[in-house]
Write a structure and sequence with these properties.
Elements lengths: L1 E5 L2 H5 L10 E4 L7 E8 L2 E8 L3 E6 L4 E7 L5 E4 L2 E3 L3 E5 L2 E7 L2 E9 H7 L4 H9 L4 E4 L1 H16 L14 H17 L1 H4 L5 H19 L7 H8 L3 H11 L4 H18 L8 H7 L5 H12 L3 H6 L2
Antiparallel strand pairs: 1-3, 2-5, 3-4, 4-11, 5-10, 6-9, 6-11, 7-8, 7-10, 9-12
Helix pairs in contact: 3-5, 4-5, 7-8, 7-9, 7-10
């Protein structure tokens, strides 16, 4: 059982679902980022819970032979799954990558299935075979009834065998996992086509444009980028690109770029040698040239000055 909290999303992602080296993320809203997490390993199934205090965006690669299901833990959580609205009625599936962004405070549950271990442990069980054969790659479905049922089962599993040490202690039995969660997921994936949310051509085009720009932004962290540069990268006119970013991320392209770069400075300072690091050098490496504006924006985003971040490294 892994329970804790961290200012790094990577910490909560190391649960056997994702490749830690693949994690790319950025805080999008002001505040000192914190993620509270709990992971219960009942191999070949893992249950997880995460609560984030501010909005963020993240992209991660799923470890081969893992089937990941993610869903909102409560009705207040709002997010986007590959650019599409994602709420308490939604279930997000993937076997390859995750691309998610959130708004404000949010809580998520997850179920990760090791398909190879499932095949090895119960090779002939009908429900296990259904999951293995029908588990989709990237998919978003709307199924309020099964989403609510799965949310209840994961919540009960995480709260099982509570002790005085805290509310997220315990390990659900293998029997309870096979007897409840695996059959439910089998029923869901067998009817994905009936509940699938098909992205519109417009959403697909917008998501491709945003992801292309985001990749370009990360590759040119110290360059002076303009909206025209990003328009050329995306193949969209400036107004269309602005609309795409606002639809997928909630921000304009240049505001999103600034937030990515502020996060880059924040992580660099948090890992730096405080005796031999100059803040101005780190800031310019991430494309900030006006230190007054940079310091003000940094403090507004993270609630501390660059110097405070460096001293706490």
């Amino acid at each position: 059982m892994d329970v804790g909290h961290s200012h790094l999303i990577e910490k909560s992602a190391i649960e056997g679902s994702y490749s830690p080296a693949s994690v790319q993320w950025a805080q999008l809203e002001p505040g000192r980022f914190d993620v509270q997490y709990a992971v219960v390993d009942a191999s070949p199934v893992q249950l997880s819970a995460r609560t984030f205090n501010v909005g963020f965006t993240a992209e991660l690669e799923v470890i081969p032979q893992k089937f990941v299901t993610r869903f909102c833990a409560d009705e207040r959580t709002r997010a986007r799954w590959f650019g599409a609205p994602f709420d308490e009625t939604s279930l997000g599936f993937t076997r390859s990558t995750v691309h998610i962004s959130t708004e404000k405070r949010g809580s998520f549950f997850g179920v990760t299935i090791d398909l190879a271990a499932l095949q090895r442990l119960i090779p002939n069980a009908p429900d296990a075979l259904a999951v293995q054969e029908n588990a989709p790659d990237v998919q978003l479905i709307r199924d309020p009834i099964r989403a609510r049922r799965l949310r209840t089962l994961v919540h009960q599993g995480l709260l099982s065998e509570c002790t005085e040490q805290g509310p997220l202690i315990g390990r659900p039995s293998t029997k309870s996992i096979y007897g409840t969660i695996i059959p439910l997921l089998a029923a869901v994936v067998e009817r994905v086509d009936h509940h699938s949310v098909e992205p519109t051509k417009c959403l697909n085009r917008r998501l491709r444009a945003v992801r292309a720009c985001e990749s370009y932004m990360r590759e040119h962290v110290d360059a002076t980028l303009t909206l025209l540069d990003l328009s050329q990268v995306s193949g969209m006119r400036s107004r269309s690109l602005i609309n795409a970013f606002e639809a997928v991320t909630g921000f304009s392209p240049m505001d999103y770029l600034k937030r990515l770069r502020l996060n880059g400075v924040h992580r660099a300072l948090g890992r730096a040698d405080k005796l031999h690091t100059r803040i101005i050098d780190v800031a310019t490496e991430w494309g900030f040239w006006h230190m007054g504006h940079f310091t003000s924006d940094y403090h507004a985003m993270f609630g501390e000055t660059p110097s405070q971040t460096l001293l706490s490294a």
